[in-house]
Records
---
Amino acid sequence: MPKFEYAPAPESRSIVSLRESYGLFINGEFGPSVDGRAFKTISPATEEVLAEVTEAGPADVDRAVTAARKAYEHTWSAMPGRERAKYLFRIARIIAERARELAVLESLDNGKPIRESRDVDIPLVAAHFFYYAGWADKLEYAGYGPAPRPIGVAGQVIPWNFPLLMLAWKIAPALACGNTVVLKPAETTPLTALAFAEICQQADLPPGVVNIVTGAGETGRALVEHPGVDKVAFTGSTEVGKQIARACAPTRKKVTLELGGKAANVVFEDAPVDQAVEGIVNGIFFNQGHVCCAGSRLLVQESVYSEVLASLRRRLATLRLGDPLDKNTDVGAINSAAQLAKIRELSDVGEAEGAERWSPPCELPVKGFWFPPTIFTGVSQAHRIAREEIFGPVLSVLTFRTPAEAVEKANNTPYGLSAGVWTEKGSLILWMASRLRAGVVWANTFNKFDPTSPFGGYKESGYGREGGRHGLEAYLNV
Ligand code: NDP
């Protein structure tokens, strides 16, 4: 198949005006930290320093929680839902208006292709605010009692893979239900959360309703362990999720955890191969595989294994890796040096344990953090690359003969966040969906998200649901 050569098509970054340094957003204003500490955020594609960001210590977290408490008691929880809705609609509209700027900023700070931040992340961010704005004055019809009450101050900690989208998943339902929030973005991707703080100012959101404290893991720990926090919402690794569950167990805090995954993408012999291959690619190479629900384990029925693999290899050879701001780029940069080291280490383990590694010919840029799209075949269930979350563009391929074997292998994981099924038979889809222990099961598609649809895990993938009507429950006293 001929490979087309594309001229560069870079998105201009002039729409973004980066400040040299950013303060903490507490009580409606940007300001310094108590101890004056700061860290730098870089572009993972070039290692260029983008800005200096203030590091919040325990005293700053305390100020933020106090501001959120005051706003909760005196303003936000007492405001009628229809008034809260107006603010949320205003925020949603400003996000839509500033969509291009936010998309460029997200790609700069995170390394994801502009095609994804522009067409997936930011439209979904706006959609979440529009959706939960609609719930704010209808909570009594949500099925949680005639007069559902908010919980109080929410402490929210989010990861770096979908920075602004994870913020929207957390803040939109919290505010719609009448809670106030203190949110900590990931250390490597704080810039869109700080742009969101500006949007709160632009929307005239009352001071203290949203507070953004930037910093690393210690800031997150200070937030979730703060006694003034009533509700903890966390998305990130299972390891940190367990620490948070332990810290909150002796308290009255309500906790939701959205953790890791090792999803099976199951392809049956009657599946349309070309569509399935697109779904496999979207399942694991979307966002460089930095996706908790990524289809990182491909289970192919043995009778079509050679055909699917040949087609997959051909398709991978057409993926374009490089500048995240180029509109033709499919695979961007790995988010950090630490994540790149983890992907390399687990891939080396895969080879050492006997699996066969393959990547298409692909030139990696010299600067920045990069890893080529990679497939491992000859993988057994005992291999670490079949069990552990790699969180990178690495696919482990296994085979099966019968639907029962597919279910057994798909469920043979400590996780249970998502799964995919590819077949022409509706009855087989339903049979599989009722047996797969996963919060989301996609049929003949993968990695599709919508604010109306609940999302969350089984087993070590966490508990609680985000999104849809179910997502309200986490922020109501029910
Ligand atoms: P973490 O779970 O460490 O980070 C998630 C968020 O929690 C970040 O904001 C982080 O801050 C913060 N945090 C870290 N330690 C604590 C703590 N003790 N208390 C409260 N908050 C804390 O994920 P990593 O970024 O370290 O990634 C490690 C692995 O986790 C990845 O390789 C991947 O496998 C998995 N992961 C899964 C995600 C998912 O969506 N399921 C998302 C991200 C990672 P900071 O980043 O500033 O240190």
---
Amino acid sequence: MIEILSPTQLPRAREAGALVADILQTLKSRCEVGTNLLDIDRWAEAMIVEAGALSCYVDYEPSFGRGPFGHYICTSVNDAVLHGLPHDYALADGDLLSLDLAVSVGGVVADSAISFIVGDTKPAQSVELISATERALAAGIAVAGPGARIGDISHAIGTTLNEAGYSVNTQFGGHGVGSTMHQDPHVSNTGRPGRGYKLRPGLLLALEPWIMADTAELVTDADGWTLRSATGCRTAHSEHTIAITDEGAEILTLPRQPHS
Ligand code: MG
Ligand code: MG
């Protein structure tokens, strides 16, 4: 089922989106060499609770994971790219960290992910991986609007990633968002323009390009959740939740206040 938000739900979606963005940027500003992934999880929990929002992750138990997730944020380091389960690991200089967070405010969900490098060392390959996912996300958002089709977004994302030299894994991609986190329609990170569901005002979509430096194959970690590159190469992931409006697409997961 594809959910179309009512005009009264859109302000709640904006609230959820801004909260997710603010939490992610606050966490990014706190991450330094030596920060433990479990601290990031605790900080995320505290900010979600403080805001009166609900975590979409802590009780989440989908077919692709093992049991309830049990944490408030996904922390994926280096070769880990999706669903990174927070664990006792202290970040090192030059680590590439992806944080993925979804919360519900007033019954509406927003979902966003950012990737960044910890510390002073900025490995060139990691910088480019992050840049490519951010460019692909921007390309997908640029073609989203009323009357456009899901395939237009998929094509824009996939073309950007391919032209940057990366192959696309189609096991996981973007998705509809609304009263729950993962809804129809699926938004593949590759596709053909002019195909698929036609976008309508009130539709919320989470667009989320992710890539691995030299492979399109994933392996599941022994923790049952964390997905890693099959070759051990580095990876990156960028995600925004957007609302289709009469005028185009509104990015909901932008921070309200400036962050360093
Ligand atoms: Mg996400
Ligand atoms: Mg998502």
